[in-house]
Fold this sequence. Notes:
By secondary structure, the chain is an alpha+beta fold. It contains 15 helices and 47 strands. The strands form 13 sheets. It has a six-stranded antiparallel sheet. It is globular and about 90 Å long. 48% of the residues are buried. The mean pLDDT is 97.
Amino acid sequence: MACSLDLSGVWSLKSSEWKEETIPANLPGDNYSALLAAGKIPDPHYGRNELAVQEFRRHDWEYSRDFDVPAELLGYEHVYLTAEMVDTFATVLINGKKVLSCENMFTRYRADVKAALRAGSNRIEIRFKSAENEAKKAAAEQPFPVPMNGCSKVPNLNLIRKVHCHGGWDWGLTLMVTGVYMPLTLTGVNTARIDYLYADQKHEKNRVTVTAVAELFAEKAGKLPVAFRFNGETRTVNATVRPGANRVKTQFVVENPRLWWPNGLGEPALYPLAVETPDETLEQEIGLRTIEVVNEKDEYGISMLFRVNGFDVFAKGADWIPADAFPERQTPEVLDDLLESARLANMNMLRVWGGGQYEFEEFYRLCDRKGLMVWQDMMFSCSLYPSTETFINNVKTELSHQIPRLRHHACLALWCGDNEVIGATGWYGSEKRVSYLINYDRLNRELARMVAELDPTRMFWPSSPCGGPGNFNDGWHDDSCGDMHYWEVWHGAKDFSAYYAVKPRFCSEFGYQSFPSLETVEKFCPPDQRNVFSPVMDHHQKCDKGNAPIIGMFGKYFRMPESFADFLYLSQAQQALAIKTGVEFWRTLKPRCMGTLFWQLNDNWPVASWASIEYGGKWKQLQYHARRFYQPVIAVVYKDQEGITRLHAVSDLRCRSKISVKAEILDFDGKLLKSFELESSLKPGESKCLKTFKPAELAGLDPNGCFMELTSQAETAEGELLTHENSCFFSVYKHCDLRRAEVKTAVRPAGENRFEVTLTTDRPAFFVTLDTPGIRGIFSDNSFTLVPGRTKVLTFSAKEKTAAAALEKALTLNYLRKTYN
């Protein structure tokens, strides 16, 4: 088998601007992490320190280290250096000899470097040029100016192949990192190396034919045995390879296969698949499933839905950005924590946003295992991009790697050309729009061609939003076809009832901002700055609208909170209410609407943003509400635009279910005023209106003096019981005569680092939110309604060793009426 050498570890880092000074630096890793660890910069997260670290983005950098090469490695015909996620413009030298040049951080570079190596001690250097300076050079070479989105504070990043949001975004700091984010390795190979492994599938009744495909690269013609292992079988192909890329195939038949299903619909079953040559082994996991994107004319317009194994799936999830502004911190543990949070919140899809990066292999492996489908944007977002031969060839190089790298993943559901770029052709002046459209078309057609050639099993969706292939509609306002980005509530300042005015086929972006929790704010904001309009809080608000929309919306729904901590809390309650309003209504529209992905799941630093999970992994109130509004079966009450109150039940299950719903109207002392009990059956994936309330049934009720509490229970054919709770108000919260409540809590151990928290109240309390500052963990429920006479028992799962006494001491509680006098 192959001899391989991993060059990960501590390297030396220097900059020409520093003369001869060097600091230690990790690779994989980035220069800013090294600078921070060496005490050369203040923490960019704290205060306004981001401003103090910008000079380094215009520096050139050099990583270097010595390493030993065993004689065994040099015994192979070829020794390949593999360099992936090299950010961005780099020259690699071994023993002073140039072996590699890089200009695209989204591709993988492999070079035979045997001639540069020697037995024993060797030296490797990676010399990086400033990406900002190289982008400036690229701008001078364009035949006409190519505009860039104003979110980025670093000009011309749309002209180079680097993570766009490294230059800042309306939720992200500007941190122009440089480094290598995957291990650099040296591998000895004789006849041919393995580049990729994937499988094509043919599904028939109770049978799947799996065609395993290995892509090999050979420097010259030769022969070698290629062994495939799958489902307990081994098949060996005696392959003849020619110089360049080669495909070697074999087939397996799986009887009565275990299918891969998205989260909530069944097991995300996976099968190990491996390929082995005399020199190397590559192992993958594949899921047996079919995924179709149905984009067809119907009675409402043109559909967009994901059909998995023949079942029409309502996509439930959020949009994903890079997990941290410091690439070195994007560890498998961090990715697992965030993706597990998505799974626990009943999500089944994430959209990897086009201003970030093609994610690490671990990201997709975890999505496979957790049943999280991935909508994969290509890395273009909100700006225009060149269509020169040089740029397109650079993009083709990255896709020639990314598409075969990712296509084996069961989670991968869709290739999307970009985020909002078709819309951006109209954002930079009408006088040049024809040029911009032609420019866009040239690049977009090449993206489509690459997908058709390298992954014909999946649909290419030209842009998000759009109506589908060949349909570049106005996806911000046209809800009749394809996917939609609906921003009228946040950017348009419309109230939450505006969600009832649109009926999207699939909403892949919509959101509302909130502040992070007090615990998170305290990590970046000194005590004298803890005011939402202070310089530090303003600095940690990157949206050009500032904090005004959050505060302004308070005036529509809530009474003004008393303290800074209550401001933060109420912003999260408001954010949850906004997204809950849209998602719940759009779920009732099935099958007209078949997906909601809210903006956004995660943050890459501590900031006011649209995220449902704070930087560091702490759940905002929205994430807890998502856990409820994305449950498989829910009951929803809303008042439509005609003023009619409707009660719907919605099922995402693949089986029939029986549902019973109890709707109680209570006053704010907890007194029962009216009660309705409903029973029905739901077909697989059905939304059904169970009741339209007649005016007489609600007559005599003071809308400012009562609310409706829903408790539903669905029973599946297998006898599983699914319970859901929901609340509905008849007036805005600020007009309601809410009462102060006495909420009591008790904590007891319930297993290793698991605890039961019991809550009771004497009066109804709303948006009841528990927090555990200093103790990381997740509650089974949070930001809920607590009603008198109903004990609520929660489970708290700590992410570190914790004692019950420590948890009880740390536990804090807030609810809506508590935030004002």
